[in-house]
Amino acid sequence: MNKGVYLGVDVGSVSTNIVVIDSNREIKASLYLRTNGRPLLALKEGFLKIYEVCQEEKVLGVGATGSGRQLAALVLGADTVKNEITAHAVAASYLVPGVRTILEIGGQDSKLILLKDGVVTDFAMNTVCAAGTGSFLDQQAQRLNIPIEQFGEIALKSASPVRIAGRCAVFAESDMIHKQQMGCSLEDILAGLCDALVRNYLNNLAKGKKLYDKVVFQGGVAANSGMRQAFARMLNTEIIVPPYFNVMGALGAALIALFEQEKLPYKTRFKGFKVKDAEFNTENFECQNCPNLCEVVKIYEDNLVVGYLNDRCGRYSQAHYKKLAVSG
Fold this sequence. Notes:
alpha/beta, Nucleotidyltransferase, domain 5, 3 domains, five-stranded mixed beta sheet, 10 helices
């Protein structure tokens, strides 16, 4: 096995995460950053920090995942590009061998992944309803004037959680306000909200599916002890929160890059750490060549076009890659 490191990058709507592993699959560094609606800037900041950790290391492979995986792959030169389901499943199976059920709740969406013998057998995603996501919990903590870090421990003090409608973020917030006006305690309201959001998750994603032990809870919301307790109570089982629970997508992407190298050795396409110093700009235009009217994104790095995204037929992106191949 060659000595060096593998990078995993997970670009999401709320966070941009980077994990570095070595050839022995040991985690050397991890980074969690807020995307703040500017993924290219988050990538630059992330690689500036990661460079300080592994500037002496040889990068053998790079994996990308998350909703912004195609963008990350384009500007970094990723070797593997995988969806979040695969990346999260790989990471959970690595840290918790024998995992059967993965509960994943991030900033803007939630996922349920079922596995058998390390293979995904079923999954469900909820990208429509905000109730139960990290951003919704952040909003409620801010509205109640409490630090989000204390949300869970306050909820755990509840002796009698109130009943809150959790099927919709709007109704949940309205119900919380009503319970406040009734004089219910903060502890009972927060515990009731955790219960409501877990019910919403199970009703929307489980939908009659059989959830087997071992159950792993990951994603940023797994830091909330109130949510962990609510899942444990409703599923009547132990809830395992693995280390690096908030960067599991990036860890999975790094592991996939390593596995691909082990299976069929390749020369990495990683462009190097120059991304930390590059100047990126984008330009949008609507393609008029067919009824799809794709809104194509043209990406510049230091005033040079490095690629196109979101053209369904590949009219621009494929032509650009062919041009690079000829010029190279």
